[in-house]
Amino acid sequence: SPAIVWFRRGLRLSDQAALAEAASRGPVIPAYILDDETPKHRKMGAASRWWLHHSLVSLDASLRDKGSRLILRRGVSADILAEIADSTGASQIHALRHYEPWWRNAERDLKTRLPDGVGLCLHDGNYLMPPGSVTTGSGTPYKIYTPFWKALREHMPPGEPVRTPQTIDAPDQWPESDTLDDWELTPSNPDWAVGFADHWTPGEEGARRNVDAFIDRATSYDDRRNLPSEAGTSRLSPHLHFGEVSPTYVWHRVSGRGRDVTIFQKELAWRDYAQNVIRQFPDYGRTGYRDQFDAFPWRDFRSSAVRDDFDRWCEGRTGYPIVDAGMRELWATGWMHNRVRMIAASFLVKHLLIDWREGERWFWDTLVDADYGSNATNWQWTAGTGVDSNMFVRIMAPLSQSEKFGAGDYIRRWVPELADLDDPYVHDPEAHGCKPKDYPAKIIGHRAARERALDAYREVKN
Ligand code: FAD
């Protein structure tokens, strides 16, 4: 009897333990279920859906090369898998483990629904180490990143990748499948993702190409990773999020090339760390870890003035060139440079005094790498509400960050109104008296914003 492989975010054939195990035992039914119900308000955001569409096209093509195909269904995962198992007489369901709370609930639910004798076999493989397995001496999970990284590093390098199946046997009969186009995952009318394809090739092959292209750049990673004007980082985040390449493979490919590569591996470990955090605190995307902030005087999001400020942030019209460039890069490409993510997030939370959860939601909808664990962990880190040390009072000055990290070309690229301004004017045209008419004035002065934020913080300090 066939086994079902339940694809969620491990959309690849290589180093895919669930697929490898199923294929070694007999016929396989690879299935992807578009499940907007199980995650409830956490259903996949719009930019991620664009990515998913193209990634599924790629996965189906790779499966067909091996004599198989991808079955597409829409609805509650547990219901549909139980039904496919029943109708095909499947003996087992294989899947990679996921740590978002809704997926863990779905796994539990599924186990109770499956026909007698059908098992759900969960495999590791989307992280360097299985989340929860790196613990302190007394066996408790780490909350803070640095000791987590030190402990994780002791287990490295991770195990060898699992072998890619040469062929994948088809079942005697395929279950019904939807057609991908009917899911309407890509936008139309207007097609706001029209530029995404210039920047990305979703799918396993695109992921491999990105890894290959990064290998040489990896040796100068530490020097260049904070410079938004340069392509110093790997741009692997959406590929890693959708599991088009395994982090183990990436780790092995870059290993042994010097100090900068270790810094890169240390960043890769942040991704693992974020999963460890949501495994311990499943509600982390919504609930701050420090209850000190429960009474924080965020500006009232129901007020239209605050909504207007939020809209200006989303649209990249704050009058702070580095913030605006970042927000426009996000809109145009579904991705933003990490340094600029930090600046833009800090600006929303501290300069505009808007609750970090609003920013988290915007990123959730607009990032192609939107990841529940990584997004929540980074937003809570920025806001000072998270498990790491409280960083609220470290208020980033966007204009000096922009100069320090040489963001001139980056701004000229993403903010066309400022394309004709040279350094140093481009970082703060208003202060230099050369702000073009069609570029907005600053939404709030830096000093005033800083004082307002620190005053607000004083209310909850103790
Ligand atoms: P590289 O510098 O090449 O790093 C390699 C990989 O390491 C990345 O692809 C990513 O998987 C991982 N990584 C690096 N930095 C981090 C980090 N701080 N946290 C977690 N993983 C990291 N990353 C996401 O993948 N999804 C998100 O939803 C997300 N939201 C963020 C929100 C905010 C407010 C901030 C400040 C950061 C967020 N990040 C998120 C982290 C980081 O910005 C991106 O992972 C990084 O910019 C991706 O670019 P890259 O692949 O070129 O990274």
UniProtKB/TrEMBL annotation:
Its cofactor is FAD; (6R)-5,10-methylene-5,6,7,8-tetrahydrofolate. Belongs to the DNA photolyase family. Residues 1-128 form the Photolyase/cryptochrome alpha/beta domain. One of its GO terms (biological process) is response to stress. It comes from the Bacteria. The keyword Flavoprotein applies. Signal peptide: none annotated. FAD binds at Y221, T233, S234, R235, L236, S237, F264, D369, A370, D371. GO terms for molecular function: deoxyribodipyrimidine photo-lyase activity; DNA binding; FAD binding. It holds the Pfam family FAD_binding_7. Keywords: Chromophore, FAD, Flavoprotein, Lyase. This is Deoxyribodipyrimidine photo-lyase. The record marks W298, W356, W379 as: Electron transfer via tryptophanyl radical. Binds 1 FAD per subunit. The keyword Protein transport does not apply.
